[in-house]
Write a structure and sequence with these properties.
The chain has a four-stranded mixed beta sheet. It has helices at 9-15, 37-44, 55-63, 73-82, 127-131, 155-169, 172-212, 246-263, 285-294, 326-336, 350-360, 374-387, 389-392, 404-407, 412-416, 419-431, 474-477, 530-540; strands at residues 71-72, 109-114, 120-125, 132-137, 144-147, 282-283, 303-304, 341-342, 345-346, 401-403, 450-452, 487-490, 494-496, 501-502, 508-511. It is an alpha+beta fold and 543 residues long. The protein starts with 8 loop residues before the first helix and ends with a helix. The protein has 18 helices and 15 strands. A hairpin with a 5-residue loop joins strand 2 (109-114) and strand 3 (120-125). The longest helix is centred in the middle third of the chain and has 41 residues, at 172-212. Helix 10 (326-336) packs across helix 11. Helix content is 37%, strand content 9%. It is elongated.
Length: 543
């Protein structure tokens, strides 16, 4: 059986986005804040978006499971110490994660024990990681959490870091660096000191054990799972105070890493190169799922995370109206982000996935939180009806689908999601087995080759714009395509209340000349005068 290649960051990023019970040391998320959950919700979460939710519903949407838990918390804490270049912050703010309520995980991250990860409490992401964004007025002010919009989270970078950390930990020197940090996660500073001392005498044996079978393929073919228990991943032998032989612990950790890779559907040999990174708030989910689940590569076609308010009014969802089943869509997401497949059986808790899906379908558009010039807005309504309403108003039917030549926007997504790819996903859903759900009975996925003109409710909060997020503000969208920004930075949470969009700041530079990133097309309203555009922008705040 071939062993996985040790080629790392670019190779890992190519496939990464497909996205301790005995611990006595504090969680990196714990603090001494006196704020209660109720106080946090009242301050930070707009109830108008979720009028029918309980506080438990909000907690579940923000941090509940959707069966993607793939990184044991003890392993994550160890990587914070052993791989700080990959994980420089316990809050994951470097990946664009939004800080959660005091003492809890970042928004969009869940924690629960996972059987194939030795029963250890493990971390995963849920809907809110990509569909909850913080908005702060430019120049400062109170942050507001907007639910259902495109979050600034960089899922590809996060899972890329996870894959690279797994590859580095499966190296003899990486394992020796990892073990003291892992011991600290389980037993605090005393455990770390004891582990470092033991490695003085047992380090060579650990290195030999890792080199012998670095990816733990013995006894488990690629894509299958080892049976693991928490006892095998502990520092002492069961029922004793005797330390476990370090080569045995290293082998158990390698089996754990094998199961993590299998859950992320990583091949034995990682590709030498991959598509360019999509950056914060975007991904090429169906392209990566096509590669990992169907074995069919496709050209890069990054899209902005979808908008999920008023979803129950639409029959077909996504930027190209390709599925009428948010449940099927979320099932594919769960499988791609850490829920393993064993043969044709998916290990997914359908109850939690359905709850996440049901909650997301009841999110309402956010109200503009700052003052609106009513007179300008009234004038702008006429411009909206003349320039926008034909495409964006009316029944949410296939009449809202428009051919690429008509809209003129980047064709990569419409071209990449072919009828063959749709049939591939349909065939996958027909053969997959999952307890409590018959995927084959769900309506089919289809290819349209077109783009959806979404309802503009809450459009002020949907920046950046177009299906690929290539236009930074609504003011830019009302600019002639040839005059739009050719590059700008993504990742800011500061909101420009004049241009209606996030400020040009952040670590990621979006180059609109790169494949899949074009900001061309959608020239509707660009012929208005500057004053008329201001009126139209003011009206769009009221949608």
């Amino acid at each position: 059986m071939p062993s996985p290649s040790l080629r790392a960051p670019a190779a890992a990023l190519a496939v990464a986005s497909l996205l301790a019970l005995a611990s006595c040391s504090p969680s990196p998320y714990e603090d001494e804040s006196p704020h209660t959950s109720s106080q946090w919700h009242r301050r930070f979460v707009p109830a108008s978006q979720t009028p029918d939710w309980s506080e438990a519903d909000r907690d579940f949407f923000l941090n509940g499971s959707m069966s993607t838990e793939v990184v044991p918390e003890a392993v994550f804490r160890a990587w914070l110490e052993s791989e700080p270049g990959l994980f420089p912050s316990p809050t994951l703010a470097n990946f664009g994660a939004v800080e959660g309520k005091p003492g809890d995980l970042p928004i969009g991250f869940s924690r629960r024990p996972v059987a194939h990860l030795g029963g250890l409490p493990s971390l995963g992401i849920n809907c809110a990681a990509c569909h909850a964004s913080e908005v702060v007025p430019a120049g400062g002010g109170t942050p507001t959490l907007i639910l259902g919009t495109a979050a600034p989270f960089d899922a590809e970078a996060f899972f890329g870091a996870v894959v690279v950390a797994m590859v580095k930990t499966a190296d003899p020197e990486g394992m020796k660096r990892f073990l003291p940090a892992y011991a600290r996660a389980l037993r605090g500073d005393e455990g770390a000191r004891a582990m470092a001392a033991r490695l003085e005498s047992e380090g060579a044996a650990v290195a030999a054990a890792v080199a012998e079978d670095p990816f733990a393929n013995r006894g488990a073919a690629a894509g299958t799972l080892h049976r693991l228990t928490a006892a095998e991943l502990d520092l002492v032998l069961p029922g004793t105070d005797s330390p476990v032989p370090l080569p045995d612990l290293a082998r158990a950790l390698l089996r754990l890493l094998h199961n993590m890779r299998a859950a992320l559907h990583l091949p034995d040999v990682l590709p030498a190169s991959g598509p360019p990174p999509s950056g914060p708030g975007r991904n090429d989910a169906f392209g990566l799922l096509s590669l990992s689940l169907l074995g069919v590569p496709q050209e890069p076609a990054p899209v902005k995370f979808g908008i999920v308010w008023n979803v129950e009014r639409r029959r077909w969802v996504h930027w190209d109206g390709n599925t009428p089943s948010p449940m099927a869509r979320n099932f594919l997401a769960a499988v791609g982000l850490g829920a393993p497949m064993v043969g044709n059986e998916a290990i997914v808790d359908i109850a939690v996935l359905r709850r996440q899906t049901d909650l997301s379908e009841t999110i309402r558009p956010p109200q503009y939180p700052w003052p609106v010039d009513a007179k300008r807005a009234e004038r702008g309504k006429g411009h909206y009806e003349a320039a926008c309403a034909r495409c964006h108003d009316g029944p949410e039917s296939d009449a809202r689908l428009f051919a690429v030549p008509e809209v003129g926007t980047d064709p990569a997504r419409a071209r990449a999601f072919t009828a063959g790819q749709a049939e591939g996903f349909n065939a996958f859903l027909k053969r997959v087995r999952v307890k409590g759900w018959d995927a084959a009975r769900e309506p089919a996925i289809r290819s349209t080759g077109k783009y959806w003109a979404a309802d503009l409710a809450g459009v002020w909060a949907r920046a950046p714009y177009l299906h690929n997020g290539s236009v930074r503000t609504l003011a830019d969208l009302l600019t002639a395509p040839a005059d739009r920004e050719k590059s700008w930075r993504r990742g800011s949470r500061e909101y420009d209340r004049v241009a209606l969009g996030f400020t040009d700041a952040g670590a990621y530079v979006l180059d609109t000349t790169a494949p899949g990133n074009s900001s061309a097309g959608h020239d509707y309203g660009t012929g208005l005068s500057p004053d008329e555009k201001r009126d139209l922008l003011e009206y769009l705040k009221t949608r």
